[in-house]
């Protein structure tokens, strides 16, 4: 399926992330794309809130740490590939987290075309205006809908 949303504030993006997070079962890999400042980290905060309500204050941009891990009902692996080349991406050890006990959220996923396989969810955030974004969700996973 492919679903398009428009959000008109950071809060609306958070709320959309929470709805997406709430339907995850484990094993999904969320591939986030969008320019600098599009809202990838903010959407991730919502996704984490949806998976484990009350835990999203832990969410911070992994742009320097590369990989953040939030231990919750499902362990959430939050990755930022912005500064990495394909060899460095291969060396992160992310394969260890591609199983039903984890949800992986990858910012700048386009840097690792073809690396992530399985239950993937593509999420692209386009800048429409200072406070508005178009968020397109694409997935073949049956439980990811509207
Ligand atoms: N509708 C909206 N949805 C998401 N963010 C919005 C929206 N309107 C304004 N913003 C602002 O855009 C910024 C998004 O920042 P965020 O760190 O989430 O972006 P990012 O895509 O993770 O950037 P980076 O590529 O640097 O990691 C925040 O300052 C947020 O308040
Ligand atoms: Mg970010």
Cα(first) to Cα(last) distance is 9 Å
Question: What is the typical, i.e. mean, pLDDT?
Answer: 95
Give me the CATH architecture, please. 3-Layer(aba) Sandwich
CATH superfamily: P-loop containing nucleotide triphosphate hydrolases
List of distinct ligands in this structure: adenosine-5'-triphosphate, magnesium ion
Shape: globular
Percentage of residues in helical conformation: 10-25%
Range of strand content: 25-35%
Q: Which short descriptors sum up this protein?
A:
alpha/beta; globular; 3 helices; binds magnesium ion; Rossmann fold; 21% helix; 146 residues
Describe the structure in your own words.
The chain is globular, with a radius of gyration of 14 Å. The protein has a single domain, classed as Rossmann fold (3-Layer(aba) Sandwich), CATH 3.40.50.300. It is of the alpha/beta class. Helix 1 crosses helix 2. It has helices at 10-22, 40-51, 86-90; strands at 2-7, 29-33, 67-70, 75-80, 102-107, 120-129, 132-139. Strands 1-7-6-2-5-4-3 form a seven-stranded mixed sheet, with helices on one face. The longest helix has 13 residues, at 10-22. Helices cover 21% and strands 31% of the residues. Bound molecules: adenosine-5'-triphosphate and magnesium ion. Adenosine-5'-triphosphate (ATP) binds at residues 7, 9-10, 12-13, 34, 36-42, 61, 63, 107, 131-133.
């Amino acid at each position: 399926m492919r679903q398009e949303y428009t959000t008109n504030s950071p809060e609306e993006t958070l709320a959309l992330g929470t709805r997406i997070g709430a339907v995850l079962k484990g094993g999904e890999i969320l591939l986030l794309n969008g320019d600098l400042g599009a809202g990838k980290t903010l959407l991730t905060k919502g996704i984490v809130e949806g998976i484990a309500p009350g835990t999203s204050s832990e969410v911070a941009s992994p742009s320097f740490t590369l990989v953040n891990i939030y231990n919750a009902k499902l362990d959430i692996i939050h990755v930022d590939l912005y500064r990495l080349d394909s060899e460095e991406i291969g060396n992160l050890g992310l394969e260890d987290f591609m199983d039903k006990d984890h949800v992986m959220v990858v910012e700048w996923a386009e840097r690792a075309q073809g690396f992530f396989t399985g239950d993937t969810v593509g999420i692209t955030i386009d800048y429409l205006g200072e406070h508005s974004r178009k968020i397109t969700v694409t997935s073949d996973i049956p439980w990811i809908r509207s």
